[in-house]
Amino acid sequence: MKIDLLYEIQIPKPHDERSEYRAYWEAMEQIELADRMGFSTAWAVEHHFLTEFAHSSAPEVFLAAVAQRTQRIRVGHAVTLLPYPFNHPIRVAERIGALDIVSNGRVEFGTGRSSAYEQEGFEVAPDETREMWQEALEMIPRMWSTEEFSHDGKYFRIPRRNVVPKPIQKPHPPIWVA
């Protein structure tokens, strides 16, 4: 049986000036122990503006730190928000590629669209998120598997470019959908 952990970096009120510091460092210590105990994957979410619920707006930074403190446990980016302007698909491909390298091929790549509250904060049109997410998700594995990537779609027009770094895992890290 595989057992995973999920981190949203929840910080209930009242907060103090070291609350986020403690939450991040305690989570890393927990994942170090989970690595030694044989847990499968440590997942970290991407959320924005959700005070108390999730102080995890840059999970790839947290997961890179986790990867350097562990040996075996996989690191899961759950959920990478793909509607633009949250994250441009090129930047997602680059960041996940780099995370796969620094984790020595231990990345799990989760994707999703976010909540209406977060979308409003980034001026994302809610009625376009499904199509935008789908177009972005179709592009990212191709960015990882080709040296000359280009795309001409409804939401993204990308001239021929080599998107680097490429992930270690072939053909690419496992992809999950929320």
Structural class: alpha/beta
Helix percentage range = 25-40%
The stretches of 5 or more residues where confidence is low (pLDDT under 50) are none
The H-level CATH homologous superfamily, spelled out, is: Luciferase-like domain
Query: What is the CA-CA span between the terminal residues?
Result: 22 Å
Overall 3D form: globular
The tally of strands reads 7
Note the main sheet.
5 strands, parallel
**In CATH's first tier, which class applies?**
Alpha Beta
What is the topology, as strand order, of the major beta sheet? 1-2-3-4-7
Rounded mean pLDDT score: 97
CATH topology: TIM Barrel
Number of helices: 5
Folded structure, characterized:
The protein has 178 residues and is an alpha/beta fold. The chain has one domain: TIM Barrel. It contains five helices and seven strands, in the order βαβαβαβααβββ. It has helices at 19-37, 59-69, 89-102, 116-121, 129-145, and strands at 4-7, 41-44, 74-81, 107-112, 149-152, 157-161, 175-177. The strands form two sheets. A five-stranded parallel beta sheet has the order 1-2-3-4-7. Helix 2 runs parallel beside helix 3 (89-102).
